[in-house]
Amino acid sequence: MLVLKETNLPLQSHENMTTRAIDQLLKEKQKFEALFNFATIGIVIANSKGEISLVNQQAETIFGYEGAELTGQKVEVLIPESSRKTHKADRQHYTIHPQVRPMGSGRNLEAIRKDGSKFPVEISLSYFNTDEGLYVIAFILDITKRKESEAVLLHQKSELENITKEVKALNSNLEEEVERRTEALRQTLTKLEESQKELQEALEREKHLGELKSRFVTMASHEFKTPLSTIMTSATLIGKYTKTEEQSSRDKHLKRISDTVLNLSTLLNEFLSIGKLEEGKIIAKNELFNLPQLIQNVVSEIQTSASEGKTIQYLPEGVQDVYQDKDLVRNVLINLLSNAIKFSPPAGKVEIDARYGENGDLEIQVKDNGIGISKEDQDHLFERFFRGRNADNIQGTGLGLHIIQRYLSIMGGKIEVESELNKGTTFKIKIPIK
Question: Residue 26: which CATH number?
Answer without folding.
Answer: 3.30.450.20
